[in-house]
Amino acid sequence: MKATRGQLELALSTKITQWEKDYLGRGSVSCKCDLIRDMAIVTLDGILTKAEMELSKDRSGREQTKKFRNDLVESGRHDLEQMVYEILQTSLVSIHTDISTKTGERVIVFKLSDPWDHAQKD
């Protein structure tokens, strides 16, 4: 039986949340994934610590927090690539990410080598 879009989105959200806990030391408050054409768009809420929120009150602190958090995601790229392949049966072309130091929200866009449903078709 082939997985539905919702099942794949939930599986990816669950894996990313677990990766955050295992790799980064803490997970987000919530994680939501949306599959659209050849992209997986992931929204994570509540990812910044209180210290990072405090640091982000000035421009220099915001830049440091964003750079550090983006570097962490990039350093875990191999794990993320494996997760995406395991769930969607397609490889990653690129990862795009940004974080809001105002809201503590991160958006990650996984650009896929094929449409998310390519393996679902007969």
UniProtKB/TrEMBL annotation:
<dbReference type="Pfam" id="PF10057">
    <property type="entry name" value="MpsC"/>
</dbReference>
<protein>
    <recommendedName>
        <fullName>Na+-translocating membrane potential-generating system MpsC domain-containing protein</fullName>
    </recommendedName>
</protein>
<dbReference type="InterPro" id="IPR018745">
    <property type="entry name" value="MpsC"/>
</dbReference>
<feature type="domain" description="Na+-translocating membrane potential-generating system MpsC">
    <location>
        <begin position="4"/>
        <end position="113"/>
    </location>
</feature>
